Amino acid sequence: MRIHVSTQPKLAQSTPLHPKRRGIIVGASTGMGAVLAQKLAKEGYTVALLAPQKDKLETLCGEINSVEKETRAFAYVHDVTNYSEVPALLRKIVADLGGLDLFVYMAGVNYPPGLENYNFEDDRKMVEVNLIGAMAWLSPVAEMFQSAKAGQIVGISSVAGDRGRIGNPGYNTSKAALTCYLEALRNRLTRHGVNVLTVKPGFVKTEMLKAAQGATPFAVTPEQAVEDIYKAMRRRKQVIYTAPIWRWIMLIIQHIPSVIFRRMSF
Amino acid sequence: MQKNFTQLENFGHSLSAPSYLIKPKTTEEIIEAFQTAKKEGLSVNSRGAGRSYNDAALIGGGIILDMQGMNAITAWDPQTGLVTGQPGVTLEQLWHKTLPDGWWPPVVSGTMTTTLGGCLAANIHGKNNFRMGTIGEHVVEFTAVLPTGAEVTCSPKKNGDLFYAMISGLGMLGVFTSITLQMKHVESGLLEVHAWPAHDLHEHLSLLLDNAPSYDYIVGWLDSTHGGKGLGRGQIHAANYLHGNEDPNPQETMKLENQILPPRIFGVFPKSILYIFMKPFANNLGWPLVNIAKYIASLPRHTFRQSHAAFHFLLDYVPNWELSYGRGGLIQYQSFVPKETAEDAWREMLALSIKRGIPSYLGVTKRHRPDKFLLTHAVDGFSLALDFKVTDGNRAKLGEMLQEFDKIVLQAGGRFYFAKNSETTAETAKKFYGEETLEKFKKLKKRCDPNGLLESDLYRRIFE
Does residue A139 belong to the interface with chain B, where contact is any CB pair within 8 Å? Predict the structure, then answer.
């Protein structure tokens, strides 16, 4: 199952003077996921990277391991809609990593149907990847963290989940539900010492942005977004927006009365 | 499985790793755990009281067999002093059972919370190593279950190769299920203890060397924060058993209530919170002051009588003392160096640590003799155990310094002990164990554990 790409044959062991935290990133091959993987490795994590694209993962792992000069990244080819393989794969990865401190769900797809069109197949795919895939992973991860009374979960949701808009009902739904699921996990897990961070990016300059129609204000680079995410992780925050200004924009948007909102072209 | 996921720590609170915790009660349940592990592709490690300072009792992401539930003393013969117990029996349970009949464990660690299984896996030594050897030398027989599901019984005569490899084998060949130990007959609950000061390292080691033959136990405290001319100064404690009528009332002194460590100081101050008051001293300013005070107090030679428990179990004297080291915890660096080279090697190491501003806060010295166990840590010489506080600020430079220490110790023909050292590399281990020993161990490993199920984080660090 694992494609092991490294310059050294074995994982660098954690010791008291060279401690390594262990993280999993689902959806790591491109965009924010890839940048976060590099950032975490630099900050002393050993990371397991999951995505469906074998080539991209291999390249990324090779890069990280050569920069860190030791085996710090492992790759696993995985399609998040392959729900039934998740529990066994998770156990395998945790065994390979030698534990688990951090889980990041980054996988997401966005298929805007266009204002005149309705596309159930695409909507379904978005819900399957963005939401059900997240639940398939987060439920065994949450169970482990609750039992261990330690750990951190980071879920990448979106500003799109804050309000249903005319452009992409399926995407809005998948992200709104993900935000709600993460909030529920947070309420369950905080009392067990587990931090759940919901990240709501606005526009991030990745492949996904190319699907966006119209203007893309306050767009940030994946590097900027990852800086925001890492800082929030360190401070064990609950919810962040990146760019931060989206917190205020969404606060306003959330309070626009429906009578106005349903007439807006936004 | 996920529901058993548990965060486990080492003794020094300096390293943690989560594992699936299983608490077996029977041999069958251990075998079952091996089968689960094989099916799931997981590693297994057994854990006793978790008193190793390193990663010996951890296996992140694997299955931990918590052996503390298998803790029955199954046979005790006060005539012969033979005791048989399950691997989770602690040294505390053991002496509580045998001392009222006049028997004491032949070898004990600095804490009585350790389990028999853990003691054998690390092949522990005590302050009488030069005389009594390691605990393995007093094991009459043990049974263990191998990852294949087979059960083996070993003694020096029967399955001798396994006997000498599983004791000291760090739990990597099988899991002990029953251990028979020859206890040591004592005629009193007290020891006669002599204390002298040592003014420098040369005198310190000479005192250990010259006095060991006349005593049953000997141990040194070394003021590791003090440099210059008095480098290596400290205090020697040597003790003898009492014989014949030296103790006028042995029945009384061997009673448990006269051994148990008092929970309060001066009958008032609860020791359970003492570590909190030690915290402000656990830094480069505080510990030297503590050590100076301790050194001055140690200057007059004196002789006193002390219970076995009070003499041996210093680590239990202040409960949770290890928490006083704060969030980063502590590590211990213990080196075993031949008597001919120890002084120069340790002079260099101690001076280096003081020069770099990362002194050890506590140093303990002992006198040792070699033994026949496969992964032995002992030499005909001395050991020096150094406790270091770990902080976010000192990790990198402490790590660097300990690698230099390793080089000095190897150069001096020394060895390391894997209940303690946490930073030793595979390369260093290869050098002091020697290729031949490691080959032998690997062959036995293959024979006992063909699927490589038994792994600890220590094993991954050192042997893979």
Answer: no
CATH topology of domain B190-427: Vanillyl-alcohol Oxidase; Chain A, domain 3 (3.40.462)
Supply the ipTM of this predicted assembly: 0.90
| Domain boundaries B2-68+444-462, corresponding CATH code | 3.30.43.10
- Domain map of chain B by residue range? 2-68+444-462, 69-185, 190-427
Find the helix packing angle between A169-189 and A120-127, rounded to 10°: 20
Examine the pLDDT at B210 and tell me if it is beyond 90.
Answer: yes
pTM of the model: 0.93
Average pLDDT along chain A: 92
Closest-CA residue of chain B to A139? B2
- Domains belonging to chain A, first-starting first, are 2-261 (3.40.50.720)
Contact residues of B toward A, CB < 8 A:
1-7, 10, 12, 14-15, 17-19, 40-43, 54-55, 59-62, 328-329, 331, 390, 395-396, 398-399, 402, 422-423, 457, 460-461, 464
Average of per-residue pLDDT across B84-102? 97
Burial of A221-253, coded b for 16+ CB within 10 Å and e otherwise, reads ebeebbbbbbebbeeeeebbbbbeebeebbeeb
Structural domain B69-185, CATH architecture: 2-Layer Sandwich (3.30)
